[in-house]
């Protein structure tokens, strides 16, 4: 129902990883028959990679999602050769694939300044066309954020992320490299009985203060966006980063990770997420897990435990899964939770796309004028 769709969008609507846009090249200008004058060609529409642009920003700035090239000028006595229409540029983030509505790839934006032409302007009228101009190309295009993996691991260095990745993967995790980033994450592949594969990325370490750009931290946060969902990993017994930093309980760790994501980009906190509570083989792990669950259910009651890092919005986890990467406890359950969560997500997205297309059929906009 539309209601479900609204709930879906309000829950996860802040993070935009794909956009559908209407693009039309500019129309050509009229030729001038008695003097053989040629009309100007219409402007083209381009998608251009630019730093610090997000798909969400495009969506907010251009709610109509329509981009049209400038019209070519008519030929006149004063100017026999009509002026060319102005090109329209759509600035988009780096690391985007541009496709037509039916999935044909028009191009990739891997580095700042990369450009892809998405709609050509129409030629101006000339003696070859009886001085009649042509309209520009019309298309619906999609901008898709290139993903590194289905799931991204989020956790501090001691959480046991790499041993967890090895425990859930069917083969040794591989280092992957991408054309649009220098970061080389480790990617593990989860295989299921029906041959479905799910990829999980462990990105180089997040540290406290990453949003202020300490070391790799900022790069890490930038790439969290390029996973469909997040897998928070915490040590059930908490952790201490270094002797001079305070000890953090598992609950504090969750909120600290949430705060780091929020300070970097608020909408990251609305990504679907699961929480993995690792190291369940340690003594007292059961009691600590119960305490963590209690704190997560009523985070406001326990926020006084968080000195200066209370997130604006607490992360809601679709599943809280206790595991031990060392003994293998809980690993199969975790794999099925990951699968279930991604399948739900895909079903929602398909539904939303169908709704959007139905909507377009019911209420055609003035796109063809």
Automatic annotation (TrEMBL):
The keyword Nucleus applies. Residues 13-148 form the Obg domain. Residues 149-343 form the OBG-type G domain. Keywords: GTP-binding, Nucleotide-binding, Nucleus, Ribosome biogenesis. SUPFAM superfamilies: Obg GTP-binding protein N-terminal domain, P-loop containing nucleoside triphosphate hydrolases. GO terms for cellular component: mitochondrion; nucleolus. Gene3D superfamilies: GTP1/OBG domain (2.70.210.12), P-loop containing nucleotide triphosphate hydrolases (3.40.50.300). CDD domains: Obg. It comes from the Eukaryota. One of its GO terms (biological process) is ribosome biogenesis. One of its GO terms (molecular function) is GTP binding. Its main location: nucleus. It is found in: Nucleus, Nucleolus. Belongs to the TRAFAC class OBG-HflX-like GTPase superfamily. OBG GTPase family. This is GTP-binding protein 10. It comes from Seriola lalandi dorsalis. The lineage of its organism: Eukaryota, Metazoa, Chordata, Craniata, Vertebrata.
